[in-house]
Amino acid sequence: MEEIKKILSEAKSDIEQDVGLERLIEIKNLYLSKKGKLSVLINKMRELSIEEKKSFGKELNDAKAYVESLINNKMVELEKKKLNQKLESEKIDITLPPIDSHSGVANPFYKIIDEIEDIFIGMGYKVEKGPEVDKDHYVFELLNIPKDHPARDMQDTLYIDNETLLRSHTSAVQAHVMEKAKGQPIKIICPGKTYRRDDDDMTHSHQFAQVEGLVIDKNINMGNLKATLELFAKKMFSKDSKIRFRSSYFPFTEPSVEVDVSCFSCHGKGCNICKGSGWIEILGAGMVHPNVLKMSGYDPDVYSGFAFGIGIERVAMLRYGIDDIRKFYQNDIRFIEEFNKKVED
Ligand code: FA5
Q: What is the mean pLDDT of the chain?
């Protein structure tokens, strides 16, 4: 009995030391394994009477159970400690300011296209797409501009070979859409990039974008065109901005007009942006020429139509007070961010 008490107190003091998990398992083996200090005391039973065996056996079992419970409690305590240490080392201070990160923003150019599309979709237009690298046939021939026509000089074109070119206007899409429509009514817009050998300045770029519009049906007239463009201008700019129609010439429309909007910078007084005129030209338009209708399979005595080509960057410049078209293509992140702020406001 004395020995049980002695071993028990040894075990208690061993367990109470500042031990780790590994050492605790060693202690468990030291006292409770088959050859452990407490387990081997069973051999003493042989020397005892039946009565003594009973009380010694009980004392020994109780001692083993006690040591086991001490070890289990210590194990729970050590695991808790380990978990707390882990939590402490992985602690996140949610009060710290976030790391400054730059997320990408859409190029302003696409935001303007979205805005223009929304306005025309609201008027019942469908959005079409056409190729940027196109055939002379679609960019010129089907638009009433044959090979030796002087109107080809109106747009200095970038050719890839004799027949293939970078489209100089989105009007090329008119020809594609009419070909597909096979004599049926049309009401589409087509936004896209265009290319010309123009000299770059504040309002001109060799690469720019247009939105083409085309409506063909019975009884379409110039009044419909005017109302459509006026509504577009009112929605895109303020109600106060002024619009001016100037008669013009395009081989694929008759009559033809150019449409100007009052200059955003000088409000019509004249400045270097509008070259002193007070106006900035944003689009060309007109009634689809009977030859164009005929070439694409429409009877001009039954069908008529109007078309327009809007300069997208010019619209963006007017709408958001951007003074130089070249900023759209320089990819300066400061400009893109500043522009996005203006759009969100
Ligand atoms: C045309 O391109 C005709 N296809 C428009 C048209 C369509 C007329 C349908 C009739 C019917 P124009 O060359 O004027 O027309 O260009 C139209 C618009 O594109 C201009 O008003 C202007 O806003 C823009 N634009 C033209 N050249 C440039 C350039 N170099 N840089 C930026 N914008 C330009």
A: 91
* 73 vs 23: CA distance, rounded Å: 15
- 175, pLDDT greater than 80: yes
Rounded Cα distance, 79 and 90, in Å: 17
**DSSP category for residue 48:** S
- What's the 336 CA to ligand 1 centre distance in angstroms? 24
* Residue having the nearest C-alpha atom to atom 12 of ligand 1: 284
Nearest protein CA to atom 22 of ligand 1, as residue: 311
pLDDT at 223 over 80: yes
pLDDT of 179 higher than 90: yes
For the full predicted model, state whether its pTM sits above 0.85.
no
- Around ligand 1, the residues with Cβ closer than 6 Å are 155, 169, 171, 196, 198, 204-205, 208, 210, 250, 253, 256, 281-286, 307-309, 311, 313-314, 325
Neighbours of 22 (CB within 10 A): 8
